[in-house]
Amino acid sequence: MSAFASKSLFAVLLASTLVACSSKPTDDQSGDMQSAPATPQSEVSAVDDQQSLQAQQSAIALTAENFHNHPSNYDGSTSSRVIYFAFDNASVPAAAFDTLRAHANYLKGNSNAKVRLEGHADERGTREYNVALSERRAQSVEKFLRVQGVSAAQIEMVSYGEEKPAAYGSDEMSWAKNRRVELNYLSGRP
Questions:
Q1: Direct distance between the N- and C-terminal alpha carbons of the chain, in angstroms, rounded to an integer
Q2: For the segment 116-134, what is each residue's pLDDT rounded down to a tens digit?
Q3: Which domains does the chain have, with CATH numbers?
Q4: Mean pLDDT across the stretch 12-36?
Q5: DSSP sequence for 117-156
Q6: Alpha carbon distance 111, 106 (integer Å)
Q7: Which of 20, 47, 56, 130 sits a CA distance of 20 to 30 A from 5?
C-alpha cells in the first residue's frame, strides 16, 4: 500500500469516527442525554463556590431566624437565664417553656427569692418602639411565671430597648442575640 493510500485511508477513518461521535441522538435517546453545553472547569468551580457560599449564607440566616427557639439556648434548668425572641415578636418561644417552668418552681419554693426581668431589643426600629417592644417581652415572661404560680411581689421588670446589646454587630446573628429577656436574681439566687 502506498503512503498516499495509507494517509487517505487514515483520513477517511478519522472523519467517519468524528461523524459517528458527533451524531445527534435519536428521539429514543434524547431523554437520556443532557442538553447542557460543556462549560470550562474554571466556570464550574466558580459556580460551585458561589452555590456553596449561598448555602452557607442561607444556613446562617436560618440559624439566626430560629435562634430564639433553638433548644441549645435552654437547658430546662435555672442555669439558663436568657430567653430569646423572634424579630418584632414578644411571644415566649416554646423551647424556653421548660427553663421558665424551672425558674417558676424555684421562685415558688423560695419566697425570699426575687427576680428582675430585663427586656431588650435589637437596634432596628426607633428607640421608643424598641423600649415598648422590650417591655412587652418582659411582660410575656412575667405572665408565663405568674401563670405558673409565682407571686407578683417576686418579679420586677425593666425595659432597656436597644441600649444594652449582648452583641455589637449589625448582622442577623447579632440582632438575634440582642432580642432577649434576661432573668437576673436580686435575692435568693438559685
A1: 102
A2: 999 999 999 999 999 999 9
A3: 65-187 (3.30.1330.60)
A4: 48
A5: EEEE--SSS-HHHHHHHHHHHHHHHHHHHHHTT--GGGEE
A6: 9
A7: 20
